[in-house]
Amino acid sequence: MAEFLTTRETVAKIEDIIRNAQSTLVLISPYWQLSENWFVRISDAAKRNTPVTILIGKDSKPECVGNLLLLKNIAIKHLKNLHAKCYFNQDSMVISSMNMYEFSEKNREMGIYIRRDTDKQLFEVAKKEAEHFFQHATPLSSLQSEDSINFTAKIPSIGMYVKKDGVCIRCSNNLKYNPEKPLCTNCYNAWSKWKDGLYPEKYCHSCGKKADTSIAYPECYSCYKSNSKMIAG
Predict the structure, then answer these.
(1) CA distance 199 to 197
(2) pLDDT per residue over 101-124, tens digit each?
(3) Alpha-carbon distance 11 to 215, whole Å?
(4) d(CA 186, CA 148)
(5) For residue 209, is pLDDT > 90?
(6) Contact present, 99 and 60 (Cβ < 8 Å)
(7) Shortest CA distance to 19 belongs to which of 47, 42, 53?
(8) CA distance 96 to 102
(9) Contact at 8 Å (CB) between 205 and 219?
């Protein structure tokens, strides 16, 4: 029988689905900005040779998608009018209001948990609808430059940056605004020794204020939301 989930229970069940994925892992969410925990969980699934299939919408954070594309065993598609959120492996599924978005974990969410062994018909109907989404989605193409941080997905309406000024997220020196390159040359050279996209930095690339940032997430939440709206038009 399907089980109702609170916010905390939804987070826990999605994590369990990712952690216990063996033969398949499907993650459907229009908005993507992963917490470090979920990124590590998805990475671990890919390293186990579990096929990971992801469906995103137009407002996903491109740096995060780029990091996912660096992993093996992951296929990502884009569906422009996606609004559904559904996460499942070979055994269980969560249908929820929660996006794969770091700040969603702090929102008030709810969901439904479905097990294949006890709700097979419901599970299969939902799975079939998810497959229908993928049939009408577009595979993401990607660009790879000399720097792995430039390995980002081409998502409609994202890619043209309207701001001109930014700061280095490590030392706060001024530089051209570009979330794909939020470090100055000196700081990038230091970072490139380890190339950890989630290594904690000190400043927001956009507003220059102190913030918990990283190569993967170079802007504070307020700036990210504001700049996303300007880019999308």
Answers:
(1) 6
(2) 765 666 789 999 999 999 999 999
(3) 24
(4) 17
(5) yes
(6) no
(7) 42
(8) 15
(9) yes
Residue 12 CB contacts under 8 Å (≥ 6 apart), including other chains: none
**166 has which bridge partners?**
175
**Run of H or E residues at 26:** strand 25-28
In contact, 28 and 85? CB cutoff 8 Å: yes
- CATH code for the domain defined by 3-139: 3.30.870.10
For the chain, residues classed under CATH 3.30.870.10 are 3-139
Confidence class for position 63, pLDDT limits 50, 70, 90: low
Residue 138 scores a pLDDT above 80: yes
Query: Using CB atoms within 10 A of its CB, is residue 60 exposed (0-12), middle (13-18) or buried (19+)?
Result: buried
Q: Which two three-digit tokens encode residue 113? A: 């948990």
84 and 28 in contact (C-beta within 8 Å)? Answer: yes
- Give the Cα separation of 41 and 47 in Å (integer): 10
Q: Summarize the confidence of residues 193-214 as an average pLDDT.
A: 87
Tell me what pLDDT residue 62 has.
58
Q: What is the C-alpha separation between 112 and 126, in angstroms, rounded?
A: 12
Question: Burial of 193 by CB count in 10 Å (0-12 exposed, 13-18 middle, 19+ buried)?
Answer: exposed
C-beta neighbour count of 195 within 10 angstroms:
12
Residue 164's pLDDT band (cuts 50, 70, 90)? low
Amino acid at 178: N
Quick: pLDDT tens for 64-90.
Answer: 666 777 788 888 888 888 999 999 999
Looking at 97-111, 118-132, 170-184, which range is the least confident one? 97-111
